[in-house]
Amino acid sequence: MKLIRCVITLMTVLVVTFAFNQPALAFCGFYVAKADAKLYNKASQVIIAREGDRTVLTMSNDYQGDVKDFAVVIPVPVVIKQEQVNLGESKIIERLDAFSAPRLVEYFDSDPCAIYPQAYDAAPSAPRASENEAKSRRDNVLGVTVIEQFSVGEYDIVVLSAKESDGLEIWLRENGYKTPSGTSQVLRPYIRQEMKFFVAKVNLQEYAKTGFQSLRPLAIAYESPKFMLPIRLGMLNAQGNQDLIVYLLSPKGQIELANYRTVKVPSEVEIPEFVQQEFAKFYPAMFQTAYIKEGKKVAFLEYAWDMASCDPCSAEPLNAEELKKAGVFWLNSNSTPSVFISRLHVRYARDTFPEDLQFQQTANRQFFQGRYVIRHPYQGESNCAAAQDYQKSVRNRQEQEAQTLTRLTDWNINEIRQKIKFVPVEPIPWWRQLWGFWR
């Protein structure tokens, strides 16, 4: 049946991720707090812009709690200096989410008695310097070296190296941080790889000057052949599963995991009309079902597209200035920027992702989007022989939509049917057949 209009409804990351109601902690590090502060960090978002060995990593801070207790420890492959750290903008992460989030698409059936031909095709988110020599000697005993220390905006930052995981854990505790149980064991592999540790906490005086109600993202630029994102530390003080959204930006094509499977989220399916009002329940349920069916050790591709265009557009593509703020450093003002976005959604726990995420760039520029179709039946009066056939086709379609929904979500099929307003199949009066359908 020919479709006469379509409306796009954006599914923001606040629904896609926060609606899971499962607390999660830092995606690539762990939060440490003084005393017994209760820390709650829900879903994590990160932007990774990469070309060659150059990477710009932007980490969102959705930390909830007293900022005086905030601190984060992140393994990094190289020493990070002050000029390599910048403050990001939360708005850029919101823009990337708006551009790439899974979406709901509405189609409206046209009058089955219209003259035009049928043609439906469901188109396919620094500690201060040592105060005395005694402290320095203590650091040496613990095998911890403070390589860099500086401030960026409201953050005081130190970059550490360590010889032993036990020594690093003791150093963190002696410097006022409450580390979660099992820290030493998880730190050990990073130390063996000779990785450094980026530690950031809030400078309260500087934070007060900003006037912001939340912490700004931190962006780090560095060069390394390692294309990875550490997540194991973030499992230490996690409460259940964690959800991570990674926006991967590349001048080539899709970016996928090298050490775990990357699969496409279920997409291009027709679902019942009532889901439009329950999309915030539908998507998490569908994602959880797919997560279990795929065996959990997977990353789901939710979006892959050239950022120079979109079809359909749920939000305008980022302009050159916004892309620069997102970390895209290969832009050339004399040519059209080539930026391909891959949006990966990972749900992980200690027993499902024993390794950090390792990425690989590909030349695959195939477009994909998480897209869910709602088709509204025609509501007007139809006075033609084709109307009854149309009503029957809609009834069959609605039943198929119900079966699709229960397959995607494991929701009860009978409860789904009760919510569907099935189109009645009304017989055509005999006198219309006798006198025609023009009245």
Give short descriptive properties of this protein.
439 residues; alpha+beta; nine-stranded mixed beta sheet; five-stranded antiparallel beta sheet; 11 helices; 23 strands; disordered N terminus
Mean pLDDT: 81
Q: How much helix is in the residues?
A: 25-40%
- Which spans of ≥5 residues are poorly predicted at pLDDT below 50? 1-27, 34-41, 117-130
Total of DSSP H or I helical runs spanning 4+ residues: 11
Q: Total number of β-strand segments?
A: 23
Strand content: 25-35%
Structural account:
- With 439 residues, the protein is an alpha+beta fold.
- It has helices spanning 13-16, 90-100, 133-142, 165-174, 183-192, 204-210, 279-293, 320-325, 386-409, 413-419, 430-435; strands spanning 3-10, 30-31, 40-41, 44-51, 54-59, 63-64, 71-76, 85-87, 103-109, 144-152, 155-162, 196-202, 218-223, 228-229, 242-250, 255-257, 261-264, 269-270, 298-306, 340-348, 357-361, 368-369, 371-376.
- The strands form five sheets. Strands 4, 5, 8, 13, 15, 17, 19, 20 and 22 form a nine-stranded mixed sheet that branches. It has a five-stranded antiparallel sheet with strand order 2-7-12-11-10. The chain has a four-stranded mixed sheet with strand order 1-9-23-18.
- A hairpin with a 2-residue loop joins strand 4 and strand 5 (54-59).
- The longest helix is centred in the last third of the chain and has 24 residues, at 386-409.
- The chain is elongated.
